[in-house]
Structures are given as C-alpha cells and as structure tokens.
Design a protein that fits this description.
The protein has 97 residues and is mainly alpha-helical. The protein is 45% helix and 8% strand. Strands 1-2-3 form a three-stranded antiparallel sheet, with no helix packed on it. Helix 1 crosses helix 3. The longest helix is centred in the last third of the chain and has 21 residues. The radius of gyration is 13 Å and the shape is globular. It starts with a helix and ends with a helix.
Length: 97
C-alpha cells in the first residue's frame, strides 16, 4: 500500500467535497449531481454501501466504485482512504459547530 499516493487521493477527494453547513449536507465527487449526503454518513466506519469486489454494484456503492474506477484502489486501500477521508470531514464538520 503506497500511503503517499493514498494521501494524494484523500487530498483530492477532500478538495472536491463541499460541505453545506446550513443544510447539513455534504456534496462529494462520488455522489450523483442530484444527491448529497447527510453529515451523519460520516459517522460510519465502513464506506457507505461497501461490497467486496466480487459483490460490487456501482449503482449502490458510489465511494468504492469511484475509488476503483478513478484511482484503481484495492478493497484494503479503499478502507484506508475512507477512514482518513471520513475523519477529515468529521473534523471539518465538528469545527464549524
């Protein structure tokens, strides 16, 4: 696992994410243009709708799909990126309260 590359991925995901504090919504590069996520999403320790590679369905697993399709990440790398990404967003959300 190349953590230097993974941290670049995390930085990119964070830079492409918008937090609407007033509406308590998070707009990510892996959500559809018409959807957003509630702040509560970032309490989950596993990526939302995560399925292993064999069970993967892109329509219900936007984060893993995005990470595999755009960055070529493995399941292990996806868990690492999700954990780091989630913590950064939780910190941003909590610091604005």
């Amino acid at each position: 696992m190349d953590k230097k590359f993974l941290h670049k991925v995390i930085d990119q995901l964070v830079s492409e994410t918008t937090i609407d504090y007033e509406k308590e919504r998070v707009y990510t590069p892996f959500s559809s243009p018409l959807s957003s996520y509630s702040h509560v999403l970032f309490l989950y320790s596993r990526p939302p709708y995560f399925y292993s590679s064999r069970q993967f369905l892109s329509s219900v697993a936007p984060f893993p799909h995005h990470c595999r399709d755009v960055y070529g990440l493995t399941d292990e790398e996806i868990f690492y990126v999700w954990d780091q990404f989630r913590q950064i967003l939780k910190d941003k959300i909590n610091s604005n309260r």
